[in-house]
Amino acid sequence: xxxxxxxxxASDGTLTPEALVDLAVEKHLNAIALTDHDTLAGIPGACVxxxxxxxxxxxxxxxxxxxxxxxxxxxxxxxVDCENDYLLERLQWLREHRQQRAQxxxxxxxxxxxxxxxxxxxxxxxxxxxxRPHIARVLVEAGHVAxxxxxxxxxxxxxxxxxxxxxxxRYGEVIKLIRLAGGVAVLAHPxxxxxxxxxxxxxLKRLIRSGLQGIEAYGNHDAPAExxxxxxxxxxxxxxxxGGSDFHGANKLGTELGEYFANGLPxxxxxxxxxxxxxxxxxxxxxxxSS
Length: 291
Hints:
Layout: E1 2-6, H1 17-26, E2 31-34, H2 43-53, E3 56-66, E4 73-78, H3 85-111, H4 118-125, H5 132-141, H6 148-156, E5 169-170, H7 171-180, E6 184-187, H8 197-209, E7 214-218, H9 224-236, E8 240-243, H10 268-277
Parallel strand pairs: 1-2, 2-3, 3-5, 6-7, 7-8
Antiparallel strand pairs: 3-4, 4-6
């Protein structure tokens, strides 16, 4: 078994990269991909623990992407070169904007009569890539809400009174960035695009023309009919079919590591091999200059 969509304390998960690998061992997983938002910081620790405990760790990242629709588009990059200068520079830029976004959200909350400490947000993030779950935890600590889900529902959800849009690259730029870093680009949880099937197929074709190579066909919150559609459309366009839980620990209750296959199961024996074979030629230094 493999889980190719996980998050650690390097972004908005609640388990350290090492603890995430330990949990994978408990769950009898052969491999996981660490796909933190906008950062590769957790990968070295996860790889060391993976080598110690016999779990393959696929170096990955999850990036949000600008596109024409109203839903959210996230793209996963697998087997990225963690020493690619251009990738590291672009991720640093995104993280800096995440911090600025957190400050703007805190300012909006203060104007709403819901003050929280910016310093405490940074403490909760533990130096990782700051996300709304960190702010939600601080809201809970301050007694403004009873749960993380309430924090999102009342203040932080898209369109909510304290919502601030995050910095993103266009989807073509995201895919290019992943490919330049030697990685494989896969569309994450396609349901979040919030598109009817015909429109999803049209968007998928545009993504494929930009270099997309896979689709996350197996997720723990997808209905069986959706999973079947993702399987069929992915195979039709020659995409790799991946699966993952989008595990965040206590920041995303009801989602368990490795438990994403209730409505379908990828061919785990060949999945990692297929991803590895789709990698472009190693591009160390290719993306080191700015564009």
